[in-house]
Write a structure and sequence with these properties.
With 168 residues, the protein is mainly α. The protein has one domain: MOB kinase activator (Butyryl-CoA Dehydrogenase, subunit A, domain 3, Up-down Bundle), CATH 1.20.140.30. It is built from 6 helices and no strands.
């Protein structure tokens, strides 16, 4: 069913809010001590590892968070491609960039978005990597999905939404 953008964004906000409040997906019990976080190599060598396991997140967490990230990314892409000039005119672009940089940094670090999902905003991400706003990360190997990525070279910069390269 086709939805207009404001309705779509509202549905995504409601849906994500419900997921975040779901105690079976996002555990709400306080820690008695900080969980040990495995290295990427340890996570890759453990066939029973999943993103969030050390902190008590369920096995379905990685699938759920990736789906949430994909939907939220689409909202960001819409904001940049359809409303960038309004953010610029209202002098709010720094706030939008700050939120998006943080969002993308986490997505890239934990491999939460696929290359195809990133396509609409990849030119801007590439510019920010080139400028040092975002760190360079290597493509994770298939065996280390969900484990934090390391550093490596990135693709060159391409065109991006008008003036969005003025990052956080």
């Amino acid at each position: 069913m086709p939805l207009n953008a404001p309705t779509y964004v509202k549905h995504i906000q409601t849906w994500v809010g419900g997921k975040v409040l779901d105690a079976s997906l996002f555990p709400m019990d306080p820690f008695t001590s900080a969980p040990s976080i495995p290295t990427a190599a340890q996570a890759a060598s453990d066939p029973n590892y999943w993103l969030g396991k050390p902190s008590g997140f369920p096995q379905r967490f990685e699938t759920e968070i990736k789906n949430m990230y994909k939907q939220m990314f689409r909202c960001y892409a819409h904001l940049y491609w359809q409303h960038w000039l309004a953010f610029w005119d209202l002098n709010c672009y720094r706030e939008l960039n700050t939120c998006f940089v943080h969002f993308i940094n986490v997505a890239r670090l934990y491999n939460l978005l696929g290359e195809k999902d990133m396509e609409p905003m990849q030119p801007l991400v590439d510019v920010w990597v080139k400028q040092g706003v975002l760190p360079k990360v290597e493509k994770p190997e298939a065996s280390s999905v969900g484990a934090p990525a390391g550093e490596a070279a990135s693709n060159g910069a391409a065109s991006a939404p008008a003036a969005a390269t003025t990052a956080a």
